[in-house]
Write a structure and sequence with these properties.
Number of domains: 1
Strand order of the largest sheet: 2-1-3-4-5
Number of helices: 5
Number of strands: 5
Largest sheet: 5 strands, parallel
CATH class: Alpha Beta
Radius of gyration: 13 Å
CATH architecture: 3-Layer(aba) Sandwich
CATH topology: Rossmann fold
Strand content: 15-25%
CATH superfamily: Response regulator
Distance between the termini: 12 Å
Helix content: 40-55%
Structural class: alpha/beta
Length: 121
């Protein structure tokens, strides 16, 4: 079963994404802050990370840089899911190693279409 790490400081967003990903037969792991994302990524080696840009302690973009710099780590697909719609932020995320970017609000169809593009469903 593929693993998905969901990182958002909003419990409601985590619950919504967990339900969607669970329905798609992913094992779901949750993180509330960027530091936890990096730790859980090293422990669990998820296939996919869906994370917000704005996270406590360590922002999502900084967590992405840390994950991408650990060469021994199995590199997961990373999708940002954020309310930040600034083109420069989206470009920074994609240039920094994110595989895709979803803008909030989102729905199950959007998630499924992005996963299909990445070959995960």
């Amino acid at each position: 079963m593929p693993k998905c790490l969901i990182a958002d400081d909003s419990k409601i967003i985590r619950m919504l994404l967990a339900k969607i990903m669970g329905n798609l037969n992913f094992e779901v792991i949750e993180a509330e802050d960027g530091e936890e994302v990096v730790e859980l990524c090293q422990i669990n080696e998820p296939d996919l990370i869906i994370m917000d840009w704005r996270l406590p302690i360590l922002e999502g973009i900084d967590a992405l840089y840390k994950i991408r710099n650990v060469k021994k780590l199995k590199q997961p697909k990373v999708i940002f899911c954020s309310s930040l719609t600034d083109v420069d932020k989206i470009k920074e995320a994609l240039d920094g190693g994110a595989d895709d970017y979803i803008m909030k609000p989102f729905d199950e169809e959007i998630i499924i279409s992005k996963l299909a593009i990445l070959g995960l469903v």
